[in-house]
Structure formats: C-alpha cells, structure tokens
Write a structure and sequence with these properties.
Blueprint: H1 13-31, H2 38-51, E1 60-61, E2 64-65
Antiparallel strand pairs: 1-2
Amino acid sequence: MSNLFAIRPYRFVPSLLTVVLCLAWLLPGLIGHEPWKGDEAETMGLIHSVLSGAPTAIPTLAGEPWLGHRHYTA
C-alpha cells in the first residue's frame, strides 16, 4: 500500500526537460532581441486581426484592408 503513494521523480524528468528546452529557446530571443522593426509590429497587428475574427482573404490592419507585402502570392 505504501508503494502506491511513493514519489517517482523519474516520471517528471521528460516534462522538466521540455520546460528547460523551451526556456533555452525562448529566453535568448526575448532578452537578446534587437529593437523591434516596423514590419514586426505590422505582422503582430495582422495576426491579432485574424485571431479576432477578421477575414483571412484580405487581412486588415487597424480596421483598414492591408495589401502590402503579399507573401501569399508567388
């Protein structure tokens, strides 16, 4: 019965390694990042508008249709 409640630290090793790997990947990008460029702000605005329910055929930026940098047309 006592084995039923025994602590098994080896079960948490994969999740701990995943968290460490994610932090090792994210922290250098957040801390050592150069000043944000204008294109990054535009991209974040476009992503926000799509996630807020705006149509994806013609993305909007601040409520206006945004037709610059058409990466989706090759």
